[in-house]
Amino acid sequence: MKSALKRPFLVGVTGGIGSGKSTVCGFLADLGCALFEADRVARELQCSDPGIIAGIRKLFGHDVYSPGSGGSLQLDRRRVAAEVFSSPEKLMELNRLVHPAVYEAFHAAVEEARRQGIAVLVKEAAILFETGRTADLDLIVVVVADRQLRLRRAVEKGLGSREEVLERMASQWPQEKLVEKAGYVVPNEGTKEELRRQTEKLYQFILREAASCRDCSGKHGQ
């Protein structure tokens, strides 16, 4: 998608664990949107950025990393998850350590998209409002589903045991709070094909919003 916009129309997509936000973002990418996966970038930085690696070792112990293939480091994510989702303080420290670097990477992605003439850039993030970096986004989309359905999906996807997923849910903003701050809500309690149709409606909404925002500079201030 090419455009004469000064920069892309920026869409944030979030939702609780098991909501289906990654599927929605995949559909948006299929429709032509550029995609920035904040959680994937965070995982990569946790094993490549020396400052972040040092900070994680300070938080969780030097042995939280082990040698990986090709000389790379491998982070014991299950151990980190077990600690942060039972300790709000450690979760806050980890976020403070990682998210500034993720934001810098997102800013670089925005500039690259601008140079390429990309019309819409979608930022997928498990936590969006919590980072305090939503003011530069033009639209925030929240994907929602029933709590028990999200729990079942997350467990079936291998994201943790029932108890571990419930701990992660407890550490995230309540879905109702996300909806209050959303510019668009995508329900996901049906089939994958139904979600695809919902995403196509969202895409048309994004195009209309982008067309009316020819000089976007971020209008979703929180």
Terminal residue distance: 29 Å
User: What would the principal axes of the Cα set say about the shape?
Assistant: globular
The gyration radius over C-alpha positions equals 18 Å
Query: Which structural class do the helices and strands define?
Result: alpha/beta
Number of helices: 9
Q: Could you give the order of strands across the largest sheet? A: 2-5-1-6-7
Strand portion: 5-15%
Low confidence ranges: 1-5
The CATH homology group name: P-loop containing nucleotide triphosphate hydrolases
Q: How many discrete structural domains?
A: 1
Mean pLDDT: 91
| CATH domain class name | Alpha Beta
What can you tell me about this protein's structure?
This protein has 222 residues and is of the alpha/beta class. The chain has helices at 21-30, 38-45, 50-60, 77-84, 88-116, 147-156, 162-171, 175-181, 192-211; strands at 9-14, 34-37, 65-67, 73-75, 120-124, 139-144, 184-187. A 5-stranded parallel beta sheet has the order 2-5-1-6-7, with helices on both faces. The chain has a two-stranded antiparallel sheet with strand order 3-4.
